[in-house]
């Protein structure tokens, strides 16, 4: 994953936030379909990179729902778009579309209202037998998956791990459009 996606999600998401790690999973095409605007039509987020329980590298981005996915609207551009899908135990899976058209995945866990922990779904979280049987190795990709079952297996492995790294995502209140324009001056 790219560093920006891993920081942001990893992220949300987002991602969202992304480091080029050898253990992260991706797919050639989106695996999850029928997304809904889980967080509303407009989404303002503040991202932090987490390392050893310390939040650093803040960045802010805004997204809008275009009927199929959240697309970048304003701020530092870490991903072109993403969808959020309810998963197990109140977690979400974030499916992001990167600038180079890779599809990457993160687990998003709600900590408190408006505050989320984002972790890249990582093949290294699963045992060796699972990695060997589910990862398509080849080319520049570490673990290319193709099915929903593969994604969910790796997502469960990531969800079971305790981390002090990843991304912290704060959902900010929507600001009136004229306030955005005033701040930009």
Amino- and carboxy-terminal Cα gap: 34 Å
| pLDDT averaged residue by residue | 78
Number of strands: 11
Helix content: 10-25%
Structural class: alpha+beta
Which H/E pattern describes the elements? HEEEEEEEEHEEHEH
| Structural domains: how many | 1
Q: Report the major sheet.
A: 8 strands, antiparallel, barrel
Main β-sheet, spatial strand arrangement:
2-3-4-5-6-7-8-11
Shape: globular
Proportion in β-strands: 35-45%
List the helices and strands and how they pair.
Blueprint: H1 3-8, E1 25-27, E2 42-51, E3 54-65, E4 70-75, E5 81-86, E6 92-97, E7 103-112, E8 115-120, H2 128-134, E9 136-138, E10 141-144, H3 148-160, E11 166-172, H4 177-184
Parallel strand pairs: 1-10
Antiparallel strand pairs: 1-7, 2-3, 2-11, 3-4, 4-5, 5-6, 6-7, 7-8, 8-11, 9-10
Quick overview of this protein structure:
18% of the residues lie in helices and 39% in strands. It is built from 4 helices and 11 strands. It has helices at residues 3-8, 128-134, 148-160, 177-184; strands spanning 25-27, 42-51, 54-65, 70-75, 81-86, 92-97, 103-112, 115-120, 136-138, 141-144, 166-172.
């Amino acid at each position: 994953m790219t560093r920006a996606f891993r920081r942001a999600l990893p992220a949300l998401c987002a991602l969202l936030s992304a480091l080029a790690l050898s253990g992260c999973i991706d797919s050639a095409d989106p695996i999850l379909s029928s997304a809904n605007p889980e967080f509303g039509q407009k989404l303002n987020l503040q991202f932090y990179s987490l390392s050893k329980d310390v939040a650093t590298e803040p960045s802010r981005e805004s997204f809008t729902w275009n009927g199929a996915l959240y697309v970048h609207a304003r701020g530092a551009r870490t991903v072109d778009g993403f969808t959020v899908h309810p998963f197990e135990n109140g977690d979400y899976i974030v499916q992001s579309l990167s600038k180079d058209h890779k599809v990457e995945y993160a687990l998003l866990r709600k900590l408190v209202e408006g505050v989320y922990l984002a972790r890249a779904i990582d093949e290294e979280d699963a045992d060796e037998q699972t990695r060997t049987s589910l990862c398509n190795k080849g080319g520049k990709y570490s673990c290319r998956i193709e099915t929903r079952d593969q994604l969910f297996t790796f997502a469960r492995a990531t969800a079971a791990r305790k981390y002090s790294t990843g991304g912290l995502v704060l959902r900010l209140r929507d600001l009136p459009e004229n306030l955005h324009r005033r701040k930009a001056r």
